[in-house]
Amino acid sequence: xxxxxxxxxxxxxxxxxxxxxVAWGIVQATLFRFSPRPLHAWRRFLLRLFGARIHRTAHVxxxxxxxxxxxxxxxxxxxxxxxxxxxCVAPITIGxxxxxxxxxxxxxxxxxxxxPDHPLTTAPITLGANVWLAADVFVAPGVTIAxxxxxxxxxxxxxxxxxxxxxxxxxPARPVRRRVMPAAAPT
Length: 187
Fold this sequence. Notes:
There is one protein chain. This protein is an alpha/beta fold. It has a single domain, classed as UDP N-Acetylglucosamine Acyltransferase, domain 1. It has two helices and 19 strands. The protein has helices spanning about 15-30, 40-50; strands spanning about 55, 60, 65, 70-75, 80, 85, 90-95, 100, 105, 110, 120, 125, 130-135, 140, 145, 150, 155, 165-170, 175-180. The strands form four sheets. Strands 2-5-8-13-16-18-19 form a seven-stranded mixed β-sheet. Strands 1-4-7-12-15 form a five-stranded parallel β-sheet, with helices on one face. Strands 3-6-9-14-17 form a five-stranded parallel β-sheet, with no helix packed on it. The chain is globular, with a radius of gyration of 18 Å. The termini are far apart. The model has no long low-confidence stretch (mean pLDDT about 90).
């Protein structure tokens, strides 16, 4: 017989973290969300104010949802498209020239379902260079995706995708085939 549940515990996040998320939530729901699509520099500025490490050529679209910008890194020409959800309770890094397409959900936290209190668990997510997550891809906590990987639409990634320049698809995502390497692949 399982042990009786213990009383609900307090938030695992510090008061400073919770206050910062409230402030970011207000900024994201107003100044960020309602900014015109071409104003990437404005959204980069807002994200940097809240601790994001974001290259000057990265693009984040106004309907992207970001949980904690201070855990977000976007390298040169990285893109978080419309209606993406970056649940960066733990660090999320999007590599150079990588795109997270609309409706995709990068989830850097979960709960320990074996424990009666279901405590929060977190693990970072890292996308290498030249990665493309097609529409509506789910990426679980602790996943690393190798350079040049394409993940097909509506796929779910529960473990790291380690074969570079490979097309993965399905739920869970599995390798479909190697990508044709361009003559001069960007580094």
